[in-house]
Amino acid sequence: MRGVAAALGAVLALAAGPAGAAGRPITLEAALARAYQTHPDLAGADVKVAKGRLAIADLETQRYSLTARLDAGGAAGVSRIAPVTLAATGTFANTASAATPSAYPSLGGTLEFRLPLWDGGKTPEGLRALNAEQEALLAEREGTRRALTLEVIKAFWALRQADLAVEIESEAERQVHRTFEQAKVARALGRQTQNDVDAAEANWWAAQAKLEAARAAVGPARGAFAALLGEDGYVPAGEPPANPAAPGPVPSGAALSEALSARPDIRAARSRVAAAEAAVAAAAGDFWPQLAFSSRYQHGNSFVDPRSGSRNPGLGELSGEWDAQLSATYNLFDLGKTSRAVDRAREDLRAARASLEKLERQARAAIEAAAHQARLAATRVSLLARTRDLAGRNYQWVQTRKEQGFALAIQVDDALAKKTIGEHEYLKARIDYVLQMAELKAALGDL
Hints:
Elements: H1 2-6, H2 8-16, E1 24-26, H3 28-38, H4 40-61, E2 65-81, E3 84-86, E4 92-94, E5 98-118, H5 122-188, H6 194-229, E6 234-236, H7 254-262, H8 264-283, E7 290-300, E8 319-329, H9 337-403, H10 409-443
Parallel strand pairs: 1-6
Antiparallel strand pairs: 2-5, 3-4, 5-7, 7-8
Helix pairs in contact: 2-5, 3-5, 4-5, 5-6, 5-8, 5-10, 8-9, 9-10
């Protein structure tokens, strides 16, 4: 693999795209940090959490209310007064009447404070439901982050595998081309036939086709990786583990319960069950009397004098009064509206419990399957490492035999093809192990 290391820079430049477009190396940890900062899914989850906090604040402020009101009004009119005079003859005489406009304004203000004392538990249970829903939203945000983590890990190693595949195929193409050139020299010396040369050339063209296919696979992998990071031009840096350790046994009993509790989707489902339970209690609040205390202070005037009943041709005297009252209301009959609301809340609770049970069953199955796949991936790495080493030694032996004149070029190419396949399978197994371990951690709620 010395040739592979020497060709790394040139191959990565080819895989990155157009000539001169240098890729920026990025580690998996840095890629995750960038995805957390820029991905819109997390921004959407943050918006939901913020709206949940506002809903809680809205319900908390409904416990108390202090309102102020200002009223302005009045009346206006026109009065006619006819002067009366007594004539010398003893008769009355009327003179022309005069119109007199009048205005009677009023101004008043009211300040009222209201405190619900008991609403059948609707407000506290409603707050409990909203707080539980907020916990569910926070758990869902964590679930979104972990799902994004798994996507970035897969895209990171998919692109890394595509880049490494280009390296492997590039080295194989160079070696096949060298064999082709050696076959032409041997043909000129009369050591090999034209058929041997044609077979070596055909292998070279096939190697070039494989190299182009490997390069073509880099583009989609790079696009998927860039979509998660929000920026193109990054080249994954890092190597999958060469000697992976098999995962431990599948947790059971208390360990399994702890693992389930760590999963964001399970936490969100449990919080929604709690919210549904509180919603049932809140819906039943209308079965109880509603008690409230209120206090009000009014200050202002009236265009009618309450003492004389006459109108005040101005703002008159300002006066104020204060009162307090304790009120109780009870819903005697609502055509079953409250009962139906409680029934709907109970059905929602049943649905939430069923959803939780389904998620827990699926989680147990996912943990078992992920642990099995991770153990299988670790075994495949160790087995394919031996296959790769044997194929490499066989290629070196055939190459030596050819140099000694005991093997043909076509035999060398066949050995090289097996060696290349072994390297591809070994690389794929190493990356598959990384991905299966990530799936297992996600299933255990530990990603």
